[in-house]
Amino acid sequence: MIDLHLHTTASDGSVPPARLVGMAAEEGFSAIGIADHDTVGGVDEALRAGRQSGVEVLPAVELTVGVEHEIHLLGYGIDHESPALKALLGQMETDRDERVAAMVRGLEEGGLPVSAAEVRARAKGVVGRPHIAAVLVKNGAARDVADAFKRYIGKNAPFYVERRKKTTAEAIAALRAAGGVPVLAHPGLLRLPRQTLWQWIDYLQKLGLQGLECYHSGHSPGDATFFRGAAAEFSLLVTGGSDFHGAAKPKVRLGSGLESWRDFEDCLSALRKRFRA
After folding, report:
1. Partners of residue 58 on adjacent β-strands
2. Can you tell me whether residue 20 is helix, strand or coil?
3. What is the pLDDT of residues 29-74, one digit of tens each?
């Protein structure tokens, strides 16, 4: 078994990198991808744990980008010390911090029980909306994280603040410069008509996209079939990942959504060949 899309406490996951690698080893996973949001802060710890436990850890990152349409890009096999990638991530972290600060100010002005200090204390690495939500839940302003997003900080909620995003072309170029393989994460969650999705994948492939995350905990079997067809049509690699976050998404376990991925070993071999090339 493999799972190439996992989040740790370096971003908005609840499990530290080394512990997550240990969980993967205990559950029989041979390879995993540590792909935190807009940070590579958990990669070194995960790689060390992988060497000790015998689990192959693919260094990765998940970038939220796209001025024209927001997408998530996974980058696999990256040199996480790459100056080009570090520069991009530094800019994105600044943008993320400013966005979170603006939302917290709005919530405070609206009389909600939250403070910047509490939110920062919740984050072990990159700070984000899930940390705000956790504070709102802790202080009794929301039933759970989903409720906090719906009522306060989700899109179209009263205290939502749009984030500044890098262009898709910038992100793909930075991932390629870092020796990585850019993959479109969970395309089924873009909620676009399939004809539009097909056109979008074509456009991204021309920008340098190299893979599609066909298998995901949020994809239906029909989604997986559709994206396998698109991957074949555009000569893109096939990947899959649960999008595990731990406590933030308690229903998503290691391997969720990957049960029908029968040729994962062949797909992983093709991915390895691409980033080693």
Report:
1. 33
2. helix
3. 999 999 999 999 999 999 999 999 999 999 999 999 987 788 999 9
Structure tokens at 190: 């873009």
Q: Could you tell me which residues come within 8 angstroms of residue 180 by beta carbon, excluding any fewer than 6 positions away?
A: 60, 61, 75, 76, 77, 78, 79, 85, 275
- Looking at the predicted structure, is the pLDDT value of residue 23 above 80? yes
- d(C-alpha 252, C-alpha 3), whole Å: 12
Q: Which residues pair with 241 in a beta bridge?
A: 216
Q: Give the residue among 87, 74, 84, 70 at the shortest CA–CA distance from 164.
A: 70
Q: What residue ranges in 88-209 does DSSP mark as E strands?
A: 181-184
Fold for the domain defined by 89-153: DNA polymerase; domain 1 (1.10.150)
Q: How far apart are CA 131 and CA 85, in angstroms?
A: 25
Which residue spans of the chain are classified as CATH 1.10.150? 89-153
Q: Residues 83-98: pLDDT tens digits?
A: 988 888 988 888 888 8
Nearby residues of 143 by Cβ (< 8 Å), 6 or more positions away: 137
pLDDT band for position 145 (cuts 50, 70, 90): confident
Residue 240 CB: number of other CB atoms within 10 A? 26
- What topology is assigned to 2-81+168-276 in CATH? TIM Barrel (3.20.20)
Quote the CA–CA distance of 209 and 274 in Å, as a whole number. Answer: 12
DSSP symbol at 192: -
Shortest CA distance to 183 belongs to which of 77, 74, 59, 60? 74
Residue 123: pLDDT over 80: no
Beta carbons of 14 and 245 less than 8 angstroms apart? yes
